[in-house]
Amino acid sequence: MSIVTRPLLFLVPLLHAFAAPPAQVRFATFNTSLYRDSLGALFVELSNPASANVKVKKVAEIIQRAAPDVLLVNEFDWDPQTDSQGRTTVDLFHDHFLAVSQNGQAALNFAYRYTAKPNTGFSPRDKNEDGLITAADTGGVLVDFNNNGQKVTTAGTREYGDDCFGFGEFRGKYGMAVYSKFPIQTSAVRTFRRFLWKDIPGALLPDISSTPAPQDWHDTTELGVFRISSKSHWDVPIDLGGGIIAHFLCAHPTPPTFDGSEDRNGKRNHDEIRFWADYIDPARSTYHRDDAGNSGGLPVATRFVLAGDYNADPSRGESIAGAARQFTGHPFIDNTVVPSASLFGSASTNTASFSGGLRVDYVLPSRAGFSIAAAGVFWPPAGHALATLASEASDHRLVWIDLRPNPEIAEAVAGLSAAGENGAVRIAFRASPGYAYTLQETADLILGPWQPVPGAVVNVAGDFSAAVTVAASAPGFRFFRIAAAFIP
Ligand SMILES: [Ca+2]
Ligand SMILES: [Ca+2]
Ligand SMILES: [Ca+2]
To answer: Which CATH topology does 25-408 take?
Structure first.
């Protein structure tokens, strides 16, 4: 006898009551271009909606029209300050713009939000860069990351930005924020802001071609502090209900441009993408270590949604060949549906207007635990009534995908075993909340068909130990499997 397990599509009611996950969830990413010229400027602007740049309302209107359930915003200045009600820029954009009807659109309410400090505009010179925003102290490391002969530690210039952990003329420029209608498991968020580039095995560290030493663009001191993430890499677990967690994997790798023949930004862009491509594969997540010191990546068969502006098109642009294909050719990522502007009658899959149009913004689901219902890019073509709304708001377009959570057998069934018992076979396993189970059988493991075993009831105890007994009287081979479905 052999036991196999497979997910099943039809549902069987079970006694345990448990909230089912939603039938469908819309995830989105949007590079909103909501960065400003100085620290605090965005905070002031979002605090005073009447005098805010009109682009802020356009960005909010686009988000309202797309109406995502979970959204990553790129290029949104990080700022630790709060107003008298304790609201940050992330809250102010919500309360003053997203939660206010824009141009007749339905207002949105994201009860859950997340942001954290990025690497942009933080100098290795500031020993206390994880502390409060104060004048840079002198205890840190002097670096010349862009090799222009100057170790710039005074904020406010491009040269300063180039000598920071991530490019930014001031602290927090080009940050990120997550808005969600589903609870964010904040205490389980993993950030990888501090991870060093040199600690990626086989990292594409840049080289000075005129010197014999390999990969010597950065000296030993600089490599000792150079971080791979130009903004940050966040694993944000979203609780979709019914015990279903989606790991929202957020990042915003550097553009591959603004460098020289050494292509240090192209190489960093490639490895920033690689960091996630490895993170979602247990065989390759051998080096990951988060900012809290915990190692490892996502276990097999984990639901995730990769989101963000990755500054790499699968086939065009200035990124290193194959950089984006680390995602679009990844065996654990569902790339069967490529978002396009089809709702606007356009077949284009571009998401950004520069360089003649590129696909650089991604919302990519795991193959495990999701099926794709629909996807799109908010890009009304020229002549469409909404064309200027999109083009004036940002140089990027919002990308969305509708996902249906599916049961994952690895989550629903553990420790499956079978044993003879008084002329019968007793099949036992560890069950999980939120699933209904059935026992199925077939006489032909290859061809099937699989059918429910008449009269066999899977009993799930209060401690979720589960068992089902089946008579072993019939001659010949019989194969059994446990099927799990969400309790509707
Ligand atoms: Ca420099
Ligand atoms: Ca060299
Ligand atoms: Ca380059």
So the answer is: Deoxyribonuclease I; Chain A (3.60.10)
